[in-house]
Amino acid sequence: MSYFAFQFVVEPVDPGSDILIAVLAEAGFESFENNENGFVGYIPEELAESLQLSEIAFDDFKFTYSKSKIEKENWNEVWEKNFNPVLIENELLIRAPFHAVNNAVKREIIIMPKMSFGTGHHQTTKLVCAEMLGMDFKDKSVLDMGCGTGILAILARQLGAQSILGIDIDDWSVENAIENCKVNACEEIKIIKGDDQSIPTNQMFDVILANINKNILKRQIKTYQPCLKANGFLLISGFFKTDIPELIQAAEQQKFKFHKQETDGEWAMLVFKKN
Prior knowledge:
- The longest helix has 14 residues.
- With 275 residues, the chain is an alpha/beta fold.
- A seven-stranded mixed β-sheet has the order 10-9-8-11-12-14-13, with helices on both faces. Strands 2-3-1-4 form a four-stranded antiparallel β-sheet.
- The protein contains eight helices and 14 strands.
- It has two domains: 77 residues, Alpha-Beta Plaits; 157 residues, 3-Layer(aba) Sandwich (Rossmann fold), CATH 3.40.50.150.
């Protein structure tokens, strides 16, 4: 699979970049790397061909872009040039194999340089990881919906979870997540291709993690309810803080109880509990 890298220059960057990233994520962009003038977005070649960026316009900011094709075999080089290690809560380091080991941090996750969402750089991934670090995962069962690189599933295992299932609709993400689980000595994590209809009907979870986007969350949240154990937690992210009321309403309609919210810039995460 080949990808296109789009370099977006946004004026003003704040909050323009966050708003544009949210729109592009729903258009098929899979990963983003912020810079001082905007950001770089990565999208599969087949989706790039049908993009209609000229139809996207905002009143509060402007953007320009350029694009270049990245062949699959060149992705490792792109990663090395553009991605830095990510430190979360001074406890978790997310790095690639070619980054130096940091013995000062409590735990680390190694992500192989493949093109799937969840490198730890995006605010939503950081929000969910930070929340997970404060939770009790010992001997818990966990579902990671839209698992991407497998970061959240791997972190759950490192925090003591025993049974972990990751699901993603994208072949590339499934392949990458499986590889990352092996690299992090978490081969017991099960990764499958699918969507919310692929959740085993005979399996219940203590924690469900879903870092996807607003529309998919609203559509899938009714599926999460019956497979979450009583007193279990649902963590959702991948949306703007302006979407919080809409998603709280959708969750409460499914009898989830609002527990807390966290934000980072324009992005948000919500935690619910099943009573």
